[in-house]
Amino acid sequence: MALHVDQASVVFPSADRRPPTEALRAIDLTIENDDFVVALGASGCGKSTLLNLIAGFLQPTTGQILLDGHPVQGPGADRSVVFQKHALMPWLNVVDNVAFGLKLQGIPEAARYKVADRFIDLLGLKDFRTAPVYQLSGGMQQRVGIARALTCDPKVLLMDEPLGALDALTRERAQELILTIWNTTHKAVFFITHSVEEALFMGTKLIVMSPRPGRITHRFDLPFSRRFLAGESARHVKASAEFIGLREQVLEIIFADEEAAA
C-alpha cells in the first residue's frame, strides 16, 4: 500500500473582493504500510487541510492524491479518520458505536460484532462493551473512537489531534496505546499534533510545515517509537540526549518559521 500526495496545492476562494487564500503549496508526501507520519507546525500551516485532502473531504486545486495508484476522489472506507472530538453516538453503547461503520456497510449483526469485539479487546474496553459512552471518561471515549475507525480495516488511519483534549497523564498513556495498536495492526498512519514531544515520540517520520501557505520545509526519520516498542520505557526515551536534542532543533525551526511569518 502506498498513498502519495503528488504536488498538491489548495487555494480557497474569497467570499468578497479579498485575494484568495493559498492554504497549501506543492505538497509532496508518500505514506506506506508501517509508516507513522506525524505533521507538525504552527496553527494555520495547513495540517488539517492536508488531512482533509487525504481523507477525500477536499479536492486539491492542483496536483492529486493517489492511493495504490488510483486518484482519491472522495471519502472511502480505505481511509478512516479520528478527530480531536470523538464524534460518538451518545445514544449507543460502546459495541454499537464501534460497529457503526460496519452497520452502514450492511454487514450482518453477528459479523460486525465479531469484528468490533476484536478492537474493543485491543483497546482495553472489554469490561465496558455494553456501557453507554456518556458514562466513560474522555480518554476511554477517545479509545472507542479509535476502535471504531479500525473496524472498517482502513488502509490509512488519519488522526487529527486525537489526544489534544486529554490531561497529561492520560495523554501519555494514550500515546503508548496507539503505538502498540499501530505495531499490532501495521496500518499506515497520518497523525497531526501541536506537541513537539508527542510528534517525536510517536512518529517514524516527521514533516514540519511552514505557516501559510503550508509547505513541507523539513523531514526527519525518527527512531524513538521503535525504541519504545522494543522495550525501552517511554520516560527513558523522552529523557534521552538524542530525543532532547532533536526536540530543541525542531522547536527552533517552528519558532523561526513563526517569526518569519510575523
From TrEMBL:
InterPro entries xrefs = AAA+_ATPase (IPR003593), ABC_transporter-like_ATP-bd (IPR003439), ABC_transporter-like_CS (IPR017871), ABC_transporter_ATP-bind (IPR050166), P-loop_NTPase (IPR027417)
* Record domain ABC transporter: where: 3-236
Q: Which UniProt keywords apply?
A: ATP-binding, Cell inner membrane, Cell membrane, Membrane, Nucleotide-binding, Plasmid, Translocase, Transport
Q: Which domain of life is it from?
A: Bacteria
PROSITE patterns in UniProt: ABC_TRANSPORTER_1 (PS00211), ABC_TRANSPORTER_2 (PS50893)
SMART domains (alphabetical): AAA
Q: Name one GO molecular function term.
A: ATP binding
One family from Pfam that matches here is ABC_tran
The record's family statement is:
Belongs to the ABC transporter superfamily.
Matching entries from PANTHER family are given as:
TAURINE IMPORT ATP-BINDING PROTEIN TAUB, TAURINE IMPORT ATP-BINDING PROTEIN-RELATED
Recorded protein name is Nitrate ABC transporter ATP-binding protein
